[in-house]
Prior knowledge:
By secondary structure, the chain is an alpha/beta fold. The protein is 39% helix and 25% strand. Strand 4 (57-62) and strand 5 (65-66) form a beta hairpin.
Amino acid sequence: MSVLEVKDLGINFGGLRAVDQFNLTIDENQLYGLIGPNGAGKTTIFNLLTGVYAPTDGVIELNGAKLNRKMPSTIAKLGVARTFQNIRLFKDLTVLENVKIGMHNQVRYSLFQGIFRTPAYWQDENFMEKEAMKLLEVFKLHTFAHTKASSLPYGKQRELEIARALATNPKLLLLDEPAAGMNPQETQELMDTIRKVRSQFKISILLIEHDMKLVMGICEKITVLNYGTVLACGTPEEIQKNKQVIKAYLGD
């Protein structure tokens, strides 16, 4: 059963056709890769899926619910979470506070209850703290819970951003170049973490990545994008043997 269905998606920026006739189907619990040269339109597609951009044409559906022209906050509540190519943490807040912020869509107390610190407020806050700590334990970040996010090593900051995205309780997790800036050991640890996240949280994952070892090592299916259009789609083995992909992206 599919979680995400994208049909004939396209967007224009003035006279530029940035994405054209893009189609994508992601099944439940699937690990899917989106690759292509710089400027191919990969991050633009992420922005379309999360409501940052409104598509010029086409349809985006999450579990049958149409996402077109919905606000990013609404799309997050429906179950789409993402990370960014450039890490966007609240660096002056603690690791724990960053994850709790990700749980904003699960807060049940009112503004009044929050201002006056009523029992309902403390009940929700205690619940979120316990759930946030469970998430941090998955990434082995619980020992840094009260450390400022800016003090974490680069690789741990990447993991914290994934943990914060998971705090929104998503059905689909979008990872935008999660291995960017990582050394080989950190990249291997990230691969293990992504597999663990998919297995433990039973969610679908779509990732953009230039590290071919990571993409070919963990993705079950890959779509290759070039100049805003789909160049190829298939298993890692099929993509590696595709002559068009080799010429356009992987290199002769």
